Amino acid sequence: MALNTTDAPELLHEQVSSLLIQPLETASIVLAAGPRIFDTASPLRIPKLVGSGTPAWVGESELIPDNYTAEFDEVRLMPESRKSVKIITRYSNEMARQSVVGLDAVLRARLVNDVSSMLDDSFLNGDGAGDSVTGIFNQPGTQSAPLDLTSADTFLDALAVTTAAEVTPNRWFLNAGDFITVRKLKDDNQRYLLESDLTRDATYRLFGVPVTVSNKVPAGKALLADISQVAVARDTNPQIKILDQRYAEYDQQAIRVTARFDLGLLHPEGVVVLETPAG
């Protein structure tokens, strides 16, 4: 009788694939959309001209009025109290040596992805609690509009809000599920309203404005923004530090990843928050 693999499993060399399956995750969207980035480790003040006087029609040899006044304000970013995003993980040297994958490389990539994902979520939904970032959805002074996923007019109404504020929006942000609902909308000629931009891979446009899709955008909400009015203060991108001596008494190493950012709006009226009415 021939021996099969099930008859003598102890004689078989156990194989482990070198492919490590990573979790499914949402890609970073806020920084990729192209906000204005200011590199600073100190508090940043961005001056704003918020008002000015009105010129007058003046005749020949008449007195030119000198009551023209300018009003200034500022956007403050990166206060000393702004906290960083930090994470650390430890692993034994035995684990590093016996792992069939490059454990340190895998952990570094994973930790950076996790930190970047947390930052991106904060850029959108952060509430500013505990000296953290206040996200775009919770920034003061933004404009608002109702969101009706069954009607294309809801998006035209949002565009009308930006037009009235002299804003040229260049980005929609939609939840993935809401995007599919909108994707099914058609005009009277049964043509889909969301147009695929063939020159930019799978980029979609809604009334001429590019659409970014992410599950970090809450369901039932959307953003229409001039992304150039979003200011991001960057102290450090996610930085990696290998701690090979800190836990030497345990024969362990550690990887630490830190990042520090802040976000504000240069012109809050350049952002429209769409939300499905309650009830």
From TrEMBL:
Protein's recorded name: Phage major capsid protein
InterPro entries, per database record: Phage_capsid, Phage_capsid-like_C
Phage capsid-like C-terminal domain residues: 12-275
Source organism of this protein record: Nesterenkonia sphaerica
Localization annotation: Virion
